Amino acid sequence: MQLTNRWGVFYDASMTTPSLERFNIGVNTPAGRLNTVLDVPTGFVPITSIVPLTRRLGEEILKLEEHQSRSSGRAVSCRMGCAACCRMLVPLSPPEAFSLLEYVEQLPEERQAAIGRNLAASKAELAAQGVLHRLESVADAERPIPDEELEPINRAYYALRHPCPFLENEMCSIYEARPAACRELLVTSPADLCHNFVDNPVEPIPVSVRIGTVLGLVWATVSESAPRLIPLPLALEWARTHRAAAAKRWAGAHLIDRMLDTLWRVLSQGFETGARGEGREARD
Ligand code: SF4
């Protein structure tokens, strides 16, 4: 069986198990076509159940970008042990915040306690620097915050070079559960430029689709709330406060359909922006 949704993403149901249905999907991206499989839960599931597979889609799309960049002589220069980018403000979609809380709550108690201490110390430092209340206003906003308002907050945070509360000995302590935004930042410029992303000519790999944005929009649709992104230092606290919302369930196929529609819409906007950009370059 092959179905095509209104955005042109095709699904092909090829295999079923009692709790999962496997679909082949094809997605056109600016870096080429991605053909992959999705295992869709057949029952009613919480929003967190679509986080791993949506992140994987994002990583597979990013691999196409990486491949394209490498083919043009610009290989990724990021290396293990380099955590220069872990001083930037990381935004999480609500589904990712819920997932992170699930992940942390299944860790041994002493790890949870250490994470709690790190987060408390991080908040105290951010409060002392006058940035915490600005992050709280982002997490609690009941309206989408435009980029012009977010930009000065991002800059104020980055000016502190405040290490992520999950960074331990310059290594990510939640590597397998790290947010999509962390997975999406790869550079091709020399690593020593990364100590100053603002003034140095750092060259990131283009990101065709931000998975945090996709998951945030899916959550806004199914929960009928404003699209929001939550600053990482506040994500666990935010997820605890909204536990009741995290417990809601939807048909797995419905969530996947919403996610693919949103993914394609965001990709289409990127294509349109790219086409306009090329048109502008042609005119200049
Ligand atoms: S979550 Fe991990 S990868 Fe992301 S900023 Fe924090 S330490 Fe770095």
Can you tell me about this structure?
This protein is of the alpha+beta class. The chain has one domain (2-283). Helix content is 48%, strand content 15%. The chain contains 10 helices and 10 strands. A 4-stranded antiparallel beta sheet has the order 1-2-3-4. It has a two-stranded antiparallel sheet with strand order 5-10. It has a two-stranded antiparallel ribbon with strand order 6-9. It is globular, with a radius of gyration of 19 Å. The model is unreliable at 1-11 and 277-284 (pLDDT under 50). It binds iron/sulfur cluster (SF4). Iron/sulfur cluster (SF4) is lined by residues 83, 86, 90, 164, 166-167, 172, 174, 178, 182.
In a few lines, what is going on in this structure?
By secondary structure, the protein is α+β, with helices and mostly antiparallel strands. The chain has helices spanning 51-71, 94-105, 109-128, 132-140, 147-160, 180-183, 211-223, 235-241, 243-246, 252-283, and strands spanning 2-4, 10-16, 20-29, 32-41, 44-45, 91-92, 167-168, 171-172, 230-231, 250-251. The protein has a 4-stranded antiparallel sheet.
